[in-house]
Amino acid sequence: MTDAPDLATLLAGHGPLLLDFDGPVCSIFAGYPAPKVAEALRQVLRSERLDLGEIEDEPDPLEVLRWTDRRGQSRLTRAVEDALCAAELVAARSAEPTPYGREVIVAARQAGRPVAVVSNNSEAAVTAYLKAHRLAGHFALVVGRAYADPDRMKPSPEPLLRASAALRANPATCLLVGDTVTDVAAGISAGVPVLGYANKPRKVANLRRAGAAAVVTTMRDVAVTLLAEAESRR
After folding, report:
1. In its keyword annotation, does this UniProt entry include Hydrolase (predicted)?
2. How far apart are the first and last CA of the chain?
């Protein structure tokens, strides 16, 4: 299900398009699953003889990074961050493109919109994927995870504010496409409206409850709307 009537209005009312990476652009952990990456990070921590009870079964590597940072030892946070950056570069090589993600990116550029990635993944991994898929030239900006500083990841508004400032745009004139309630929370905090991308049925209600301005279940709808906008400008 897609909020089609709201989508054209929402897109027409905003300029720069900010895309979360893992979800709207690709599935970065499709070939190197996130739980395996999380386990690789725990191996780093086990070498320090830490009690990992709270995160022993944690499948999300970003949560392992956050947990490590809460220990208050910057050396450990940097070690886990370095391991995560390395794993993400490996994962980027086997990431699966999101259906119609490429079409959205190309159509947005044809419509004259600046396009940026704002991600909790490392900038190096995002850039490697975009280059490998010949998409880098379509992006004005990539804002990745702040090094060894997980408090600055979304849901912090900081990455979105950094992107809008770099694009010299008022945050309210930008539109973020994100697939998590974390993206929506970051958008609300930054004053950036969020178009929810529900790539799983259960996400529709979650994204709406979180405050997404509209929700789509396929990026095709976004691509079609942007292509119509590009055509109207010719």
Report:
1. yes
2. 31
